[in-house]
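Structure first, sequence second, as always.
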């Protein structure tokens, strides 16, 4: 298959607008915390230091949330497995267990031969704020080639 590099057929992440939102969610409060610490340096008292500490804690919580829910989420199609990194966990699914691929409300759904369904949140409408039809079609084309290749063996 053309375009295969290091066994990876394709990688899909949350859309560009979702990633930008994630970075803003992480960087915005961090800038606020830096400003609070800058002010505490010039007016050093307990109240300003506590305020800067609270702003830092808030910035850390939002940065962790943004990373966990938006920035680390991805779908990787590899020659031997599918890797789905979702906010709720990471799944490694061998192609030999996949019977069909569909698009659901929460993203690309991989149906297995034993009746289970695994969802890749990176291709959900909510993860991107826009419809994912084109990105899903690209991923579906690659997965169909993999599934046909497995059936021919």
């Amino acid at each position: 298959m053309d375009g295969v590099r290091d066994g990876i057929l394709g990688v899909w992440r949350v859309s560009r607008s979702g990633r930008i939102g994630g970075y803003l969610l992480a960087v915005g409060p961090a800038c606020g915390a830096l400003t609070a610490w800058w002010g505490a340096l010039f007016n050093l008292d307990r109240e300003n230091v506590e305020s800067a500490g609270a702003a830092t804690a808030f910035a850390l919580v939002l940065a962790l949330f943004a990373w966990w829910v938006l920035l680390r989420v991805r779908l990787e199609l590899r020659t031997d497995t599918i890797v789905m990194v979702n906010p709720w966990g990471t799944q490694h699914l061998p192609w030999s267990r996949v019977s069909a691929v569909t698009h659901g409300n929460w993203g690309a759904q991989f149906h297995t031969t034993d009746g289970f369904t695994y969802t890749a949140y990176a291709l959900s409408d909510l993860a991107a704020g826009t419809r994912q039809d084109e990105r899903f079609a690209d991923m579906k084309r690659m997965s169909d080639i993999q599934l046909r290749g497995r059936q021919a063996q």
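Margin note: The chain has a mean pLDDT of 87.
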